[in-house]
Write a structure and sequence with these properties.
This protein is of the alpha/beta class. Helices cover 42% and strands 16% of the residues. The protein is built from 14 helices and 14 strands. The radius of gyration is 21 Å and the shape is elongated. The structure holds thiamine diphosphate.
Length: 365
Amino acid sequence: MFAKDFIEILQEQNFKDFFGVPDNLLKQFCYKIPKNKNTITPNEGNAVAMGVGYYLSTGKIPIIYMQNSGLGNTINPILSLADIYEIPLLFIIGYRGEPNTKDEPQHFKQGLLTEKILDCIDLKNEILSTDLNEAKKQIAFAKNYLEKTKKSFAFVVRKNTFEKEDIDENIFQNYELTREMAINSILNFAPEDSFFISTTGYISRELYKNSKDNSRNFLTVGSMGHTSSIALSIALNKKDKTIFCLDGDGALLMHMGIIGLIGEKSPNNFKHILLNNFVHNSVGSQKTSAQSMDFEEIFKGANYKKIYSVKTKKELEEILPEFIKNNELSFLEIKIKPQDGNNLPRPKNTPTENKIAFMEKLNGK
Ligand SMILES: Cc1ncc(C[n+]2csc(CCOP(=O)(O)OP(=O)(O)O)c2C)c(N)n1
């Protein structure tokens, strides 16, 4: 079915407002939500909590959408907020790693357990039909269930449920630098014995593609938003090594509280780089809140000692030597434009192989 028709039926059934974190499997759906009805939240737990506030203030049932990877972020506000106050929410969940389909390793376990997790937290769920008339019946059933029981309901959405249509991906700005250019400049300037901890999606795949020695990289292929926490621990335990953290704006925003702890600990070997394209480039370039934020001020306020922000190759290459050499906790924002990464290679080695090689290099074995 077409995402637009599905959304129209939802709206006819009085499901008017949407809160969530974008997913590439739900890309068509995300783009067809009317803009003034779509709230993209930093993480999936925020979407649940905003949905609760929406219900409290309108009496209407919100739609909460996400990739199944985000389910973990929602469990606390589902169980100890929505459930205990009997606030019904309608979930739309992209089914990455569905059993017996081909997908990347980070989706395997989450896919295997998605339906089980939903059953386990007593969240009634169904696979969404690909047929519009069937989906219409499912929505009517869900509506009745939500209103009668005041419990939540989830549609699990398989790959290709929505027909592919051309979509005009959001381009909010057009900076000179791309992700590829920025990462290549960083790699050119970074000492050969540095280590990189990189975030989920295209950024890790770009680093993987362009690095000479991938055993120096820890690719956080899943667990979006946790890269800087991993990098913080490594920086604290390996004070003689330079640790680069390659973050995205979507990922940084997802668990931004950690920057307070990074600032508090202030490891002087920690180089935090934000590749800011203002969107979730890896899953279809849906906007993040980065557009209305001033990261230089925020990181300054979080006690980072050196702060840089650049938007051209020239500026970047002028600043990199100082950024790398200074011996203080540093933040570098690189404003870039979104860049398609569909054809980027994916790691040939398994996550466990990546871990072993990385640990051997880091720990000098
Ligand atoms: C918890 C969780 N929610 C959602 C996703 C799906 N996802 C993968 S990459 C990505 C976008 C990351 O955006 P950003 O950090 O800005 O990097 P960019 O893709 O723009 O390079 C999303 C939403 C995920 N992997 N995990």
